[in-house]
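To whoever is on call:

I kicked off a structure prediction for a single chain this morning and the downstream step that reads the tokens threw a length-mismatch warning. I double-checked the sequence; it's 375 residues and nothing unusual in it as far as I can see. Pasting both halves so you can look.
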Amino acid sequence: MKGCDVSIEGVSKNFGSFCALDDANIRINKGEFFSLLGPSGCGKTTLLRIIAGFEVPDSGIVSFDGRNVIGIDPNMRQSNTVFQNYALFPHLSVFENVAFPLRLKKMPSAEINKKVLDYLHLVQLDAHVHKKPNQLSGGQKQRVAIARALINEPSVLLLDEPLSALDAKLRQNLLVELDNIHDQIGITFIYVTHDQSEALSVSDRIAVMNQGKVLQIGTPYEIYESPATEFVAKFIGETNLFDSSVVECVPTQKDDFMVTLDVPELGRQIKVTDYDRTEPGQRVSFTVRPEKVRITLEEPQSTSREINAFRGYVEEPVYSGFQSKFYVKLDNGTTLKVFKQHQNYLEDGPEIQWKDTVYVSWSANDGYIVEVINQ
């Protein structure tokens, strides 16, 4: 495996009275595609700049393969950075932009020519070798920047929101290409983004950050299905989130617990499966993702105690082609979000329409207790 391990231990950074990073601790594995995800101002770019050497932390260390790199100049580290604004030389051709780091090293011309053409082929720019940056699209410019960052063969590639200036479709296409490049090169990628769909699409693991703190580290599946906090649950995709209190917690035969929750916003008790014991009376946050909620015109016939079912009406349907999003107002007045995938051809449009009386339901296994609320 190429690349190197990157360890962030107790890193904090303040700008005046503003705390940009608060005791960040992350371990990034060799060859991993790792994303720092969070809203603007959460500290992710500050952390990336500390890893790159452009900022110095107030406390803590950053290690590459066990070697503390704090105090080492950026150009002497095993990392290179791809910036959001490309940072290309406008007067140089694509070839010369990519060749620039090698010319600084006074590498022989024949070796430069071979390496530059190899890396331009890697980013699919063979036909644009002699063009200037102003003759390229945004996506092509970013590929030039990626090739230039990779040609020095760093152990760690740092990417600071590299696709945010591109339109949505181009961004998705380049994201797939970036993932393919990572698979071919095999070094450690550390990717900063505020877009949760980007992070979920390409990351081996993700660190979700907010207000300078690392809230959760895990695989895309773990982050989405088992959010550690209310913030993570709301920031990663869409969800239905409710405060509730534990009425009963009973062990099952599957090494988990069947928990009965009293949810005031839903107007009644529900069932949820949990892997941790929670005590009766404990306040918790409960979430169920919209795509896990079933919506029907007929009342569910299941007699299982694990099914949570409610009646309501469609307050607002939103058709999106591949799916419809329904805002369902329940009989008690609470609105629930539901996603329904369109798996078959809809000759007469969606079956469920505005103002229809509907039933929404979900299994106890599809809800999730996000966190215990301190009382």
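Update from on-call: the warning came from a stale cache, not from the record. Cleared it. Sanity check on the structure: Residues 6-235 form a domain with the Rossmann fold fold (CATH 3.40.50.300).
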